[in-house]
């Protein structure tokens, strides 16, 4: 089996992070320089050297490192105190702390582990050991982070599933009642629509009956009007015509004959519209169709009629078709203007 090199291990770590921030805290400049030189050979490591604990605390707060290499023997605040401070802070407690020290006694190691240290590197230092341990604890931290993230996602998914199951249970419990209620609402709405439809049908029947009655009244009125007109013409011819003939026969004076002729012509003009076939035609037409007939008799074209009546040529064409239909001359070859002129 091929052995995994340090570069391979670093590559695997890069999958989860592009670079790693390594903080080294040591008041001994030689030790600090040595550790920096060991770690800076890896471009994946961003090394931050710190000379005392006070600077370390502010530096950690400004930017959280991925791992801390910490010396134990330092003035003011030693490594144990600093480690305890770091581990007591919820924001930084998961940062791996590796003690790098000349202390090799059992008690120092027990104390370090008891306050939260992850590992010990004892002097004299070994480059490969330093890199291996740093790499190991960064990898462990990344793994823990991934597990934590996955655990959080799993908890979210569990909560979502529980919520969905609760909603589904509620829906199942209320589905039958909801469907029943909705069915009743639809049934009621359908009944209302049927009632409205019946009412509309009744109103429509009433309107049809009213329209029929009005048409009958109009037809009766037209018949009465026609009867009166015919009676008037007949009365004129019966009661006035003979006397006019007698006057015409007995009067010899030229002036009187001229007046008599005027009276005859005026009477003829009065009764002419009543006796004219065109008058009968007008009775069948609507007001718009009557106006169209008058304009056709004047020789106006469809476009001219449309302009005069302020309608579209299409509407005038419909008037023409309706007039032809009512006059029973649907044959397009027959000229409508000529037909109307022949009625006069």
TrEMBL record:
Query: Which Pfam families does the entry mention?
Result: GerE, Response_reg
Glycoprotein recorded as keyword: no
GO molecular-function annotation terms?
phosphorelay response regulator activity; transcription cis-regulatory region binding
According to the UniProt record, one GO cellular component term is: protein-DNA complex
Entry coiled-coil feature ranges: 137-217
Gene Ontology terms: biological process: regulation of DNA-templated transcription
The record's SMART domains line, in alphabetical order, gives:
HTH_LUXR, REC
| Residues with the 4-aspartylphosphate modification | 71
Task: Report the residue ranges that make up the Response regulatory domain in this protein.
Answer: 21-138
Q: Which UniProt keywords apply?
A: Coiled coil, DNA-binding, Phosphoprotein, Transcription, Transcription regulation, Two-component regulatory system
Instruction: Say if the entry is tagged with keyword NAD.
Output: no
Q: Which CDD domains match?
A: LuxR_C_like (cd06170)
UniProt xrefs under Gene3D superfamilies: 3.40.50.2300, Winged helix-like DNA-binding domain superfamily/Winged helix DNA-binding domain
Q: What is this protein called?
A: Regulatory protein, luxR family
Task: Name the source organism.
Answer: Desulforhopalus singaporensis
């Amino acid at each position: 089996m091929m052995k995994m090199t340090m570069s391979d291990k670093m590559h695997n770590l890069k999958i989860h992070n592009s670079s790693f921030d390594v903080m080294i805290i040591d008041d001994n400049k030689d030790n600090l320089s040595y550790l920096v030189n060991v770690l800076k050979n890896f471009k994946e490591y961003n090394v931050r050297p710190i000379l005392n604990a006070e600077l370390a605390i502010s530096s950690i707060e400004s930017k959280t490192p991925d791992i801390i290499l910490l010396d134990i023997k330092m003035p003011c605040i030693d490594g144990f105190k600093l480690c305890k401070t770091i581990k007591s802070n919820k924001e930084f407690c998961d940062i791996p702390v590796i003690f790098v020290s000349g202390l090799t006694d059992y008690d120092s190691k027990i104390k370090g582990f008891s306050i939260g240290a992850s590992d010990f590197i004892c002097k004299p230092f070994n480059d490969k050991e330093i890199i291996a341990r740093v790499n190991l604890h960064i990898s462990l931290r990344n793994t823990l982070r991934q597990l934590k993230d996955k655990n959080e996602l799993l908890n979210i998914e569990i909560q979502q599933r529980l919520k969905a199951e609760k909603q589904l249970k509620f829906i199942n419990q209320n589905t039958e009642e909801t469907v029943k209620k909705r069915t009743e609402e639809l049934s009621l709405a359908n009944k209302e629509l049927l009632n409205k439809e019946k009412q509309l049908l009744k109103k429509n029947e009433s309107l049809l009956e009213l329209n029929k009655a009005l048409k009958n009244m109009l037809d009766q009125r037209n018949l009465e009007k026609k009867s009166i007109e015919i009676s008037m013409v007949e009365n004129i011819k019966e009661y006035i015509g003979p006397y006019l003939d007698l006057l015409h026969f007995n009067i010899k004076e030229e002036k009187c004959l001229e007046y008599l002729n005027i009276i005859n012509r005026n009477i003829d003009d009065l009764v002419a519209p009543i006796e004219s076939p065109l008058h009968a035609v007008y009775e069948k037409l609507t007001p718009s169709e009557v106006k169209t007939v008058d304009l056709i008799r004047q020789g106006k074209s469809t476009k001219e009629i449309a302009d005069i009546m302020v309608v579209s040529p299409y509407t005038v064409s419909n008037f023409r078709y309706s007039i032809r239909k009512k006059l029973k001359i649907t044959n397009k070859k027959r000229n409508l203007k000529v037909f109307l002129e022949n009625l006069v």
